[in-house]
Amino acid sequence: EVVMTQSPATLSVSPGERATLSCRATQSLSTNLAWYQQKPGQAPRLLIYHASMRATGVPARFSGSGTGPEFTLTISSLQSEDSAVYYCQQYNAYPPAFGQGTKVEIK
Amino acid sequence: EVQLVQSGGGLVQPGGSLRLGLSCAASGFTFSSYAMSWVRQAPGKGLEWVASMSGSDDRTYYADSVKGRFTISRDNSKNTLHLQMQSLTVDDTAVYYCAKGLRVGLLYYYDSWGQGTLVTVSS
């Protein structure tokens, strides 16, 4: 079973600054990794799939990178509306698994 | 526009069943062409995959934590996904989301989600 570990648990970033979120798997995933954004009281929203492909309507300030076991989600210039919890999800092997989430706060 | 509208949920005693289960009514896409899944989130916790069902050939997959107790099903004629839940424990307390899956091999990532419905297991 693949275990996903995200770091840090909480990230506090000033508006306009860069936010870098990490996700590590216990085995290689190739590029079978997605990132989701979840705001309080809302359902998750797909941001990135195939490790680096932006979903429809996702702003260009969100980018994904990585392969194998290590992946990164970067928010290039943080906006106030980006305050949320971000989850990675592997879809390379059953059972599909999510990381525990990184909470991004606006400093 | 893709829409997933959930219904059901509520309060259940430990060991009990959710009488009508959970439902997810889909619109805005060809329902039978897509796998669907249930993902849950315990209060204050992260996301946990529960079950998936393929679009048209009835393949089902379950998390070990719910296998033998939950049943995922779908009615492609009514564009509806269901989750029957029995032998519930307090650990099943969560918001349950239905999600539309995009297939990669035998697995999925999720591009659309329902609004979520709360299932509370408590005496």
Task: Please outline the helices and strands.
The complex is a heterodimer of chains A (107) and B (123).
Chain A (H helix, E strand, L loop, with lengths): L3 E4 L2 E4 L5 E7 L7 E6 L6 E5 L3 E2 L7 E6 L2 E6 L8 E7 L6 E2 L3 E5 L1
Parallel strand pairs in A: 2-11
Antiparallel strand pairs in A: 1-3, 3-8, 4-5, 4-9, 5-6, 7-8, 9-10, 9-11
Chain B lengths: L2 E6 L1 E3 L9 E6 L7 E7 L5 E7 L6 E3 L7 E6 L4 E6 L8 E11 L2 E7 L3 E5 L2
Parallel strand pairs in B: 2-11
Antiparallel strand pairs in B: 1-3, 3-8, 4-5, 4-9, 5-6, 7-8, 9-10, 9-11
Main pleated sheet of chain B = 7 strands, mixed
Q: Note the total helix count of chain B.
A: 0
What is the N-to-C order of secondary-structure elements of chain B (H for helix, E for strand)? EEEEEEEEEEE
Helix content of chain B: under 10%
- Elements of chain A, N to C (H/E): EEEEEEEEEEE
Categorize the overall geometry of chain A: globular
Q: Which percent band covers the strand fraction of chain A?
A: over 45%
Share of residues in helices of chain A: under 10%
Distance between the ends of chain A: 36 Å
Mean pLDDT of chain B: 96
Task: Point out poorly predicted stretches of chain A.
Answer: none
What is the number of beta strands of chain B?
Answer: 11
Number of helices of chain A: 0
